[in-house]
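User: I'm putting together notes for a lab meeting next week and I want to include a structural view of one of the chains we've been expressing. I don't have a solved structure, so I'd like a prediction I can at least talk through. The sequence is below, exactly as it appears in our construct file.
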Amino acid sequence: MNKLPKVELHVHLDGSIRLSTVAEILHQKEDFVKEKLIVPDTCCDLNEYLTKFDLPLQLLQTEENLIRVARELAEDLVQDGVIYAEVRFAPILHTKKGLTLDEVVCSVLKGFSASSIPIQVILCMMRDRTLKENEQVIDLAQKYIKKGVCGIDLAGAEAIYATKDFLPLFEIARKKQIPYTIHAGEADGIPSIQAALLAQTKRLGHGIRVIEDQTILNQVKQDNILLEICPTSNVQTKAVNHYSKHPIRTLFDMGCAISINTDNRTVSNITLTEEYQRLQKYFHFTEEDFCKMNKQAINAAFLDDFSKKRLINSIDSYILNKR
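Assistant: Thanks for the context. Below is the predicted structure for the 323-residue chain, given as structure tokens.
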């Protein structure tokens, strides 16, 4: 599974910091850091899950730390067999000690610049921020689009801040031709997905609760909207009661386009290889299934057609060499 060429489209920078790095910066033991960063099995919901970002966000307020964490995540992705990734973060959350939005973005891009695989950045708007504040993120994305930034997202406490309240932002993004994905169908259900579809999104962050409404499910299938599924994270946030109860197998068999992701490598204490292994154990997915999902992810990636073709060729070469 490690050697299988993988694509990761839904991974958060601040949720994927190495424990050793946090321990070093804080001059603390790793056991202390682990308790602060990794979500427990007793996690109640998404809101509790999100508290594990408090410490990382305290650290990611300098150019030095942002560059380092991005560089190390790139190394971890390569080690995990990832051939292309889109990493997301919210620039507005990294300005508490004086960094400008531009300095934040440039630092992260610098950290990824030395990567041996192509990595692009998705800038997150936050649900607990005003429309005006979030519009700054759209302007920022427009400034750096095709310079390392590939799109925007809406993240945060989905059940508290309704997706429909942010529809004007995606109208602005469409006019500026900025690609976007939207967290929907995780902590909130069908209303969140309906709003995301009204926003004309081509990708849903998580989106697993689409299984609850056949009409919406049919629309997602018909429009070939990619579900960025993060199985372990879904269990931890209680979007799903148990790994064995996850709807990913049903969604795949019904013909939905699917991408497999970690969401937050450190917070969820998972690698993409381990996620594949769990899916294989619980749902008997084959390498052929995983390759199909990765091709679906590539087709939905915020990439030009030439780059997509090159990545698909990498997967085809892997399959050919296995025969």
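A couple of points you could mention at the meeting. The two ends are 16 Å apart (CA to CA). The chain has a mean pLDDT of 96.

User: Perfect, that's what I needed.
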